C-alpha cells in the first residue's frame, strides 16, 4: 500500500522528504533528490504495531527535518531513519 501523497502535507522549506510508502512490514522513505531508503518497521515498535491507516497519517515537521505520526504519537528524524535504513 502507498503512503499519503506528499501534496497532502505541509512541508517546511528545508524538507528533503518527498513521500513514504509502507509495504510488507517495511517503510520506504523517498527523498526529493530521487534517493530512497527502506527501513524495517520492526526497528520502531510504535510503527510496527500500528495499522496501515495509522501509518499513513504522517506529516512532516515544520522545520522539515522530521516525521510525526499523531495517531500513535511517534516523532522521528529523517536523518535518523536514513541512518537506520537497510
Task: Please summarize what this structure is.
The chain has three helices and six strands, in the order βββααβββα.
Explain how this protein is built:
- This protein is α+β, with helices and mostly antiparallel strands.
- The protein has one domain (6-83): NE0471 N-terminal domain-like, CATH 3.30.2020.40.
- Helices cover 17% and strands 34% of the residues.
- It contains three helices and six strands.
- The strands form two sheets. It has a three-stranded antiparallel sheet. Strands 4-5-6 form a three-stranded antiparallel sheet.
- A hairpin with a 5-residue loop joins strand 4 and strand 5 (66-69).
- It is globular, with a radius of gyration of 11 Å.
- The two termini are 20 Å apart.
- Residues 1-13 have low confidence and may be disordered.
